[in-house]
Amino acid sequence: MNTPHHQINIHHTPDARHNPSDRLPDDRLRDGRHNPDSRVDGRHNTGGHLMNVRHNPDGRIDDGHQVTGNHNAFYNKHHVKESLTTRVTKLICGIFLGILFTVGLATFILWLSLRPHRPRFYIQEFSISNLANPNGFSTARITFNVTARNPNLDIGIYYDTMNLTIYHQDQTIAESPILFPFYQSPRNAHLIYGTLSGPTLRIDRVRWGQLFDARKRGVVPFRIDVASSIRFKVSTWDSRHHKMHANCEIGVGSNGVILRSDEKKKCPVYFT
């Protein structure tokens, strides 16, 4: 008795139809794409699935480690090149700053050694005659003695004409040129002295009365101004002109002589 025949439907996959031996053809798929060189461009994992890996032109399978190595090598090379450039830049900047600091320091030291100091003036003597006489203005005389010092070690001073002005309560009572142009060598002192009388005194009866009244109070205040235009001489170089003033306030006692406390008094010096 014939047994019934049952038809078994067998479904073939695309690979199974074309490759009955269950082996992948040479033109294997790589992620759904044909591999042009007909070589395996993938590996099966334990689950039978094809792993996505790279294929080198020489036929060896590359799983990505070599690419990472190449990337690291490129990064290290770039990093070394950048570090070298940074070091060279820092070195150049350091050398430049060092040179700049050295030049600045040398210039500062040179400036300190050649920096001109102002001349110094001291009141040595001052007196006015006939101060005890209420009518002595017609025969009054003012005697002065001033010392001018050049404190510079290697710098000389040229003075133009020097003028002396004497004030009492901001009123001019005497004015006259006292020295003509001269040169003062370094570390030198020059005596400036003289007597003012007659037309050089601007004292009338009213102003003499003011001086006489101040004498009764014990002290007659005066202000002395020594003015000149000066230039500093450094070796063969001369500076520009500076208008100099030496201003000193002193007091004269009832005897018409400068107070002992004001003798050898240093006068402030300023430029205008």
Automatic annotation (TrEMBL):
Topology of the protein relative to the lipid bilayer: Single-pass membrane protein
- Stretches of Basic and acidic residues bias are at 12-44
A GO CC term attached to the entry = plasmodesma
Which intervals of the chain are annotated as region Disordered? Answer: 1-57
Q: Where are the transmembrane segments?
A: 91-114
Concerning Pfam families, the annotation shows: LEA_2
Q: Which residues form the Late embryogenesis abundant protein LEA-2 subgroup domain?
A: 146-248
Q: Which InterPro entries match?
A: LEA_2, NDR1-like
Q: Does the keyword Phosphoprotein apply?
A: no
Give the location in the cell. Membrane
Q: Which UniProt keywords apply?
A: Membrane, Transmembrane, Transmembrane helix
For the keyword Transmembrane helix, the answer is: yes
* Principal subcellular localization: membrane
Among the record's GO biological process terms, what is one?
defense response to other organism
Q: What is this protein called?
A: Late embryogenesis abundant protein LEA-2 subgroup domain-containing protein
Source species, please? Lactuca virosa
